Amino acid sequence: MSADSPRTFPVDEFVREELYPGYRQAFGSQPFVAGPVRPFSLADNERYWLRDSLHFSEGMVPASIATLDDAQTWGAQLGAEIVGVPPTRGSVNRLAGTHVYLGTIDVDTQWQVQARAARFGTYVSPILADFNSYWTMRAGELTAAYEHFDHLDLAAMSPAELWTTLKDAYAFHRRAWFIHFEVMYVLTANYLAFYALAEEIGLSGSQVSSFLAGQQTFYSRTDEELWRLAGRARELGVDAALLHGSPLDMRARIAALAGGAAWLTEFDAFLAVYGQRMEETCRIDTPAWVEDPTPALYSIGAFLAKPAGFDFNAARAATIAERDQLIEEARRSVNGADLARFNAALASNEAANFAWWNEEHNYLIDRRAAIPVRRATLELGARLADAGRVADPTDLFYLFKPELFEVMEADPAVSGGPGRRWADLAAMVPDRRDYFEYWRERGPSLPTMLGTIPDTVPDPIMIEVFGLSGHFLETLRGDGGTGEAGAAAVTEIHGFPAAKGTVEGTARVITTVGDLHLVQPGEILVCGGTTTEWTPAFGIITACVCDTGGSLTHAAIVSREYGIPCVVGTAIATQVVKTGMRIRVDGRAGTVQVLA
Amino acid sequence: MTDAAVIGLADIRGADAGRVGPKMARLGQLAADGWRVPDGYAVTASALDGWLPAAARGELARLFSAPVAGHAELTELASRAQALIEAQPLPSRITDAVADAHAGLESRTGHGAALRVAVRSSAVSEDGHAASFAGQYETYLGVSGVDDVLLHVRLCWASGFSAPALAYRQRFGGASPVRVHDLAVGVLELVDARSAGVAFTLDPITGDRGVCVLEGNWGFGESVVSGHVTPDHWTVDRASGQVLTARQGTKRAWSAYDEAAGRVVLSPLPPDLAGRACLTDEEVRYLCAQAVAIEAASGGVPQDVEWAIARGLPFPDSVYFLQHRPETTWTAAVPDEPAAAPDAGATPPEAEPAFDPVQYALRNVFKVPKK
User: Fold this and answer.
1) Does residue A26 or residue A327 have the better pLDDT?
2) Which residues of B touch A354 (CB under 8 A)?
3) Class of the B6-189 domain?
4) In what order do the strands lie in the sheet with A449-451?
5) How close does chain B come to A560, measured CA to CA in Å?
6) B205 in contact with A, Cβ within 8 Å
7) ipTM for the assembly
C-alpha cells in the first residue's frame, strides 16, 4: 500500500433506508438465526408457549433481554443449526410483560429434516466418540475467559477501556451460550437414544437417568462445603448469629463474636471458589454470591436448623449402590444382542453423561456467563451516576442494550457524550422500574402455557428438561389451563416418577427462589420447578413435587442424590396444593395425594 | 491360597473370577463339573497388580503426560510403551511360582519340555467398559518353555497398551492411559487340534433358541474366531438333536503350528482338506448336546462355547472345551477375547459397533424417516 492510498472509501453513496424500493428490512438491527425475542403478537396464538419460571422466575429488566436473547433464542438456534438437530431449529422467546415464555421452531419440510439428519450424524459422532476431550476443550475456553474477566481492575480503567470490556463481556456471553446449546443437543441425542433403546428392549426409559447417577458435580461439592461451614459455625459458636436476624448485618454480628473472624475467613475462602454464581440465568440485575452471599448464609442457617447434618458420603454411596444394582438388574433382564446394545449405550452415556453435565455446566455457563456483563455495567453505571447522566448505577439495568450501545458508541469518552440523549434515557428509567415491579408481582399468577397446547412436542429438550410429556400437555388441556375452581376439586395429581420413596408431610408451596428461606426442615417442597439455587433445600425437605420437569430436570437428579421421593411434570401441583396441606408423595408411582 | 501368585486350573472354581478373571474361572468350573478341558494354571490379577517397577511406571506416566493428537502419534506411543513394559523383569515371586507350576504341567501332560501352551489374557472386571476393554488384550498360541511363558505373560500385560487398546481407552475410558490393569493370565496346554471352532446354543443371527449353531475349520480355532475364513456351518435342532442344515465353508486358510516360527500362524489350507467338512455328523451332534449341557450348567443363559477335536485320540475323548461365555457378543463391537494374531503384521478388521447412539437417535428419537 502506498503512503497516499486513501484510508476511507466512503459508503455515503450507498446509504439507504430501504433494501429494495418499498422494502424496509425487518430485523436488521437484531441479529438472530431463526426467530427473534419479541413481545407476543396475535399470530402466537397458533403455537404453544411455556412459561420458563424455571430459569427466570421474577421477570427480566431491559438489559437482561439482550442476555436472554443470547441464551434461549440466539444460542439455542445457532446450536440447533450447527449441530443439525433434525426436528427443531431451537427455541425462541416471547415476553408477557417482563416474563419469559419459551417456544420452539419446528423444521417443517422433509428435505430439511433429511439434510439436517445427515449433517447431525457427521457432527455429533466424533464428539460422542471422545466427549471427554471435547468438553475439556470447551470448558477450557470458558475458564480462560473467566480468568481474563475476573482479574480485570475495572475501577482503574479509562472510559474507553471500560467500554471495550463491556463489549467483550457481551461477546463472550453470546459465545458461552452457543457452547451451551451445542453440547446440550449433542448430549441430549446420546441420552435419548439410550432412553428409547431402554424402552425398546423392555426396560423403563425413566430408569436411564438412574443408571447415570452418582457423579460428583461442582454443585454437590458446593453443598458439601455449605454443610461443612454449618458444622464449623457450631464449633466456633457463631451458629446463633446465622440462625436469626437479617442477613444484611449478619456479617457484622458474626465478626463481633469470639470465633467470628475465624469463621468469616473460612467463609470468604469458600466464596472465592464457589461464589462466582448468580441466582438466576441471564439476569444481570441479580448479584453473584461474591457480591452478596445472602443465599449462602441462608443455606447455612437452614442446615443449622437440622442438627443431625447430612451425610453426603453415605448418600452418594447409596446412590451409586442403587445405580449399580439397577444396572445389574437391567443386564439380567435382557440378553443376546439387546444386552450388547444396552452395554454399548450405557458406555456411551457414561462417557458423555447428560445427567452429570446438566448440573455441572451451570457453574461454567448459566449462572456465571453474565457476571462479566454485570460487573462492567455496574462500573459504567457508577461513573455515569457520578457524571450526573443517571441517578443510580443500577439505572443501566433499565436500558436496552441497543439503547446503551447507541449512546455510548456516539461518544465512548462517557463524560462528554450526547447529554440530551442521556437525559431522554434517564427519564424513562423510573417508569421502567415500576413496570418491572408490576410484572414481578403478577409473575406467580401467569399461566403455565399460552397459545395452543399441542398433543406432543418434537423438541427433546422440551420433553426431558422442561417436562412437556404427553401427560403434562393433556393435564393442561384437561383442566382448562389453569382454572382455580377446577384445581380445588383435585385430590390426586399424577406426574413423572422421578425419585422413589413414599413420604407424607406438610406442603410448602414456593413460587420463586427468593422465598426459599421459608422452607422448614421436614416439609415437602411444592414448586414450579427447581434449579441449582434450590439445591440446598434438598438437604432439609422430605420430598419434592414440581409442576414442570422430566427425567433430566434438576429436581429429579438432585432428589435421587439426596434420597428423597420426587414427582415432576405434574402441570398443576402449585395450583392444587396450598402451603400447610398434608400431602402424600409416592415417587415410584408418580402420584401426589392431598390428604387434608 | 488366597494370596497365591499362581493357581492350578484344578483348584479354580467359578467363584474365583475376582482373582483369575471370569474366563479362567469358568474354565476351572467346567473342568470341576466333569468336562474335558486343557490342563493349565493361572497367574492371578493380584500377583500382577503393580508388578511393574516404580521407575518403569514413572516412565509410562511421562510418556502419557501430554495429550495424544493423531493416530500416528498414538501408534508411536504404543510401541514405546509396549517395548518399555516387555523389557521389565517380573518379580521373583511370580517367576518362581510360574516355574513350579509350569514344571508340574510339563510333567502331568507327559510332553516335558516339548509342551506347547496357550498364554491367554483374562481380564478381571467384566462391567461395561472393562468387558469390552477385555477384548483389547492379546492371546499367544504355541509358547514353549518357562522363559517363553514369562515373556508372554509380560506381552499380555503390555497388550493393554497397543494402539487399538489406547484408542479404545481414549474413546471410552476418559481415564489416564496409565491405570492399573485388572488382568490375570491363563497358561493352558495347547490342544493339538485336528478341527476347532465355536458352538452357539442359539442362532446368533436370528436369536432362535430352538437350535444350536456350530462353526468350525480344520486346525486351531483361531481361523474361525478371527473371521479369517468362512467356516463350515451346522444348525442342529436342540430338542431332537437332528442336524437341520450343513453348509461347507470356503476354507482357504487354517491356523496351524509353524515349527520354524514356533507359534500358530494362518496359512493356506492343504487342498485335500479344503473340500471336506471338518466334523463328522456324530461330532456335530455331540458338540451340540455338550454345549446345551454347558448352557444348563450356566444358569440357562445362552452360551458361546469354543471347542477343539484333538488329533490321535478316540472320539469322544478327543473333544476338548477351551472356554465358554454368555452369548452376548454376536453383534457386539468387541469380542470378549481377541483371536491370536495369525500374522504379526495383520490388524483385525474394524467391527461394527453394537449400538450407534447417533443413528439410533435419528431413527427412534427424532423419527427421521428412512430415505
Assistant:
1) A327
2) none
3) alpha beta
4) A38-39, A88-96, A99-106, A48-51, A449-451
5) 22
6) no
7) 0.80
